[in-house]
Design goal:
7 helices; binds magnesium ion; 34% helix; globular; single chain; 4-stranded antiparallel β-sheet; Rossmann fold; binds adenosine-5'-diphosphate; alpha/beta; 10 strands; 6-stranded mixed β-sheet
Length: 237
């Protein structure tokens, strides 16, 4: 469970103050597939970065499973990110000179508690799962955008994180590939009971989410639960 209490993020540039987040309070349940929506500049990416321990708020609190993340040392934050969190970005963020296999293995290789055999086994399993095992020796540029995004999703789940963060993962994809990516998130959420927090500004993505939080000018302006989805997806509070 993620508890967000009166979160503020203020960027100061010279004399100008930008309130990117202006008092966000929100609780995200375990296993939830949450959509964060809102116009460009409404604070979606900023919120995701705070929750993903990629940046620190100006004030307010974030508790993950009861732990106040502001109390973590840099080392604890790094470990927490590595073992508990996964990230998917709009531009895939794959390493261009590494093969598909190597890209997906990176988070697993960084862990101290995995043998090389285990990493190879996990990586191949996940490539099989996303239907790209036969592309394991290819470089990212030899794949389509949709395939590259599937590789980045594989990389984000190789450590079986508790929480997956995705910032507009379909922004550079056509409708068909967006559906493939969204279906993959849905399956991951169902099978692994992973919490997924996904930023989007496409209306039709709403059908995939259990719950939709709308931001405007750094504030939550609506918070709607999708009752039907909630039960059909087996999501339990
Ligand atoms: N590093 C930064 N420095 C200054 N202002 C920023 C920075 N990052 C974001 N902002 C501002 O904060 C607001 C929210 O940005 P962002 O979270 O990226 O919105 P969204 O992802 O919803 O488009 C915007 O007004 C943006 O210009
Ligand atoms: Mg953004």
């Amino acid at each position: 469970m993620i508890e967000i209490l009166d979160l503020q993020k203020i960027y100061r540039m010279g004399n100008v103050e930008v309130r990117a987040l202006d008092g966000v309070t929100l609780t995200i349940e375990k296993g939830e597939f949450l959509g964060i929506m809102g116009a460009s500049g409404s604070g979606k990416t900023t919120l995701l970065h705070m929750l993903g321990l990629l940046d620190t708020p100006t004030s307010g609190k974030i508790l993950i499973d009861g732990m106040d993340i502001s109390l973590f040392s840099d080392y604890e934050k790094t470990m927490f990110r590595l073992y508990k969190l996964g990230y998917v970005f709009q531009d895939y963020a794959l390493v261009p000179d590494l093969t598909v296999m190597e890209n997906v293995s990176i988070p697993a290789m960084l862990r101290q508690d995995r043998t090389d055999e285990q990493t190879t086994k996990d990586t191949l399993e996940i490539l099989e799962r996303i239907g790209l095992r036969d592309r394991k020796d290819h470089l990212p540029r030899e794949l389509s955008g949709g395939q590259q995004q599937r590789v980045s999703i594989a990389r984000s789940i190789v450590n079986k994180p508790d929480i997956l963060f995705a910032d507009e993962p379909c922004a550079n994809l056509d409708t068909e590939n967006s559906k493939i990516v969204l279906d993959l998130f849905r399956e991951i959420n169902r099978e692994m009971q992973q919490t997924i927090v996904m930023v989007s500004h496409e209306e039709w993505h709403k059908d995939y989410f259990h719950r939709i939080v709308q931001l405007r000018d750094g504030k939550v302006v609506s918070d709607d639960m999708h009752e039907e989805r909630k039960t059909s997806a087996g999501f339990q509070q």
